[in-house]
Amino acid sequence: MQIPSRIAVVVGSTRPARICPVVAAWAQAELQAGSPLHYELLDLAEVDLPLLDEPLKAALQDYRHEHTRAWSRLVLSFDGFLFVFPQYNWGYPAVLKNALDYLYVEWRDKPASVFTYGTRGGHKGAQQLLTVLNGLHMAVLENHVEAVITDDDVDPDWQLTDPAATLRPALPQLRRVDEDFLGILTDRQ
């Protein structure tokens, strides 16, 4: 019997009072419902990498710090990645770029997609990250998710008042992402 493929749903923001964990948890739960794949949350706040401090380029895999070796092992343990993040000033969070830049070989050929959100869905941030994922030679999926979250969707503490209702319009996109992951990972078995 084959072990189900593990997909990391990466919480790509570490901002205090962030909503990214709620968005990522919703995505993880919706993806897991009915999928043979195993979706797991991976919070970059918990990984807690310092600003890139390796003296040599990642492609050499000559890691000097235990936090880099631990990050490498964790990334290698997953079969694919869904990067969830808010759009910041038409870009994506620096913590996500930092986490990606720590490694190189570990990302190669791993299927990846993005789930962005913002007042207009996060398309510009998604495009920037997709360029980076292609540069890392990841197998970028055809489908991605963009969720619109406006000021009307949050309370005075900037938390989502009704995550399920706010994110529900993104569900068809999310289902297509699951189909893409399943298709590429099934083809590889």
UniProtKB/TrEMBL annotation:
InterPro entries: Flavoprotein-like_sf (IPR029039), FMN_Rdtase-like_dom (IPR005025), NAD(P)H-dep_reductase (IPR050712). Residues 6-143 form the NADPH-dependent FMN reductase-like domain. This is NAD(P)H-dependent oxidoreductase.
